[in-house]
Specification:
Layout lengths: L7 E5 L49 E3 L14 E2 L2 E2 L9 E3 L2 E5 L3 E2 L2 E2 L7 E5 L4 E7 L5 E9 L6 E7 L18 E8 L4 E7 L12 E10 L29 E3 L14 E2 L5 E5 L10 E4 L7 E7 L5 E10 L5 E10 L2 E10 L3 E10 L4 E8 L3 E2 L7 E2 L2 E9 L5
Parallel strand pairs: 1-12
Antiparallel strand pairs: 2-15, 3-4, 5-10, 6-9, 7-8, 9-15, 10-14, 11-13, 11-15, 12-14, 16-18, 17-20, 18-19, 19-28, 20-25, 21-24, 21-28, 22-23, 22-25, 26-27
The structure holds calcium ion (2 copies).
């Protein structure tokens, strides 16, 4: 099938910047000292007003970046029309290049621009960037979630970087019917601060073309562990990127993600296209609060390497369902475990529901690759423009000896 017209590449570039110490007014936040406590979930929602300070600094796990929703704008004297003039004109941010400050409802030609959060967002023109430095805990893993939308017909692209590592990720936007998508990308902090840079490397003829950016948030990730109840890590997908409470389109986890920098800890995205991370507040989820929707057919697969003992028999159990998002039709999830494979058909009415499946196999290696993909492409029946697909969740791998 042809891919929807909105295509995008997300190049993730991690640059090193030699700047002075981070500002003192930024809270250190992270997940130290809350190793085995999930009691901090009451702090999972970032304060609406990001000037609110946590009671204890360790309680930060998720936060919107200061002015990460761009609701605080430049002074009129720092703008020429929509174009931001001063490098430090947008509070908490440093900008360079052709950056526009966009008000919701603003018109571009005959297109009405809508922003996903509040009343304002920024647009990055050719070679434009926005940059912000925050404190983090060195060695910890973090996932960045942000919203963006294309505004022109051309291909657009975006770099996101956090010092000092860098990588390049091709990304193709999965068009959601309102034009906005949320992306996640993760990094391991190499310093006690992270300088987050979003950069549009594009060279379009129209400098006003370029992605709209809004709502940039960061979440500390817990490194998942295998246990005697599940050889796989994060098999229920409960650990993952931040999902904005006010967005109903899930979070895209970009392709070519390796497990040491995955916003979905434990899992790799081994494909050309993204997978979608969905939450129970907005979708039907088989187990817990989060699951994965395989939105790009055979082009999006998730995988994990499990430690196994050759000659032993294992069972891979998982659920296949639909997200209650008008994604109806005959679906098939293919699961692979080493040389074992199973195709699980699922008839979706698009109204939620799931079934369980089991793949029994004999390990032939001390490392077994577990992988899932969707055989078919599916489109939502309510807008015919959004890709969708089967949901997988509650993935467990056990040796038969361990089975209760
Ligand atoms: Ca906003
Ligand atoms: Ca789950």
């Amino acid at each position: 099938m042809s891919w929807p017209c909105m295509q995008m590449q997300l190049h993730v570039t991690l640059n090193s910047f030699c700047l002075g110490p981070p500002p003192d007014d930024i809270q250190v936040w992270g997940i130290n000292n809350i190793n085995n406590s999930r009691a901090n979930t009451s702090f999972e929602t970032p304060p609406r007003d990001d000037t609110v300070k946590p009671k204890r600094k360790q309680e930060w796990r998720i936060r919107l970046l200061p002015n990460g929703n761009f609701e605080l704008g430049p002074r009129p004297s720092d703008m020429n029309g929509t174009v931001v003039l001063g490098r430090y004109a947008i509070p908490s941010w440093e900008i360079s290049g052709f950056v526009e400050y966009i008000r919701s409802g603003q018109k571009q030609g005959d297109m009405l621009l809508v922003v996903p959060e509040g009343a304002f967002a920024v647009r990055l023109g050719n070679e434009a960037s926005v940059k912000q430095r925050i404190k983090v805990i060195k060695g910890n893993y973090y996932s960045i979630s942000f919203n963006f939308a294309r505004t022109c017909a051309q291909e657009e692209s975006l770099n996101i970087s956090v010092a000092p590592e860098w990588g390049v990720l091709p990304l193709q936007t999965l068009y959601s019917s309102n034009g906005w998508d949320t992306y996640a990308w993760a990094f391991q902090a190499k310093f006690n601060y992270a300088e987050i840079v979003l950069h549009n490397p594009g060279v379009e003829e129209d400098p006003a073309c370029g992605p709209l950016i809004d709502s940039i948030a960061i979440r500390g990730l817990y490194p998942p562990r295998a246990s005697n109840k599940n050889i796989l890590k994060n098999g229920g997908f409960e650990e993952g990127p931040y999902v904005f409470p006010n967005t109903s389109w899930g979070v895209l986890i970009p392709p070519n993600i390796e497990d040491d920098h995955s916003p979905l800890p434990g899992w790799m995205i081994e494909s050309l296209k993204a997978v979608k991370y969905i939450d129970s507040d907005h979708f039907s989820v088989p187990q817990g609060k989060r699951a994965i929707e395989l939105v790009a057919g055979k082009e999006s697969a998730i995988a994990q390497i499990a430690r196994t003992i050759p000659g032993k028999t294992y069972t891979l159990t998982f659920t296949v369902g639909d997200a209650n998002n008008a994604c109806a039709g005959s679906m098939v999830v293919e699961a692979f475990a080493g040389k074992g494979t199973i195709k699980v058909p699922y008839e979706s009415k698009g109204k939620g529901g799931f079934k369980r499946a089991v793949l029994r196999f004999v390990a032939v290696s001390n490392r077994t690759r577990i992988m899932f993909l969707s055989t078919f492409y599916t489109m939502r029946s309510d807008d015919f423009s959004s890709l969708c697909g089967p949901v997988i969740d509650d993935v467990k791998l056990l040796s038969v000896r361990n089975k209760a």
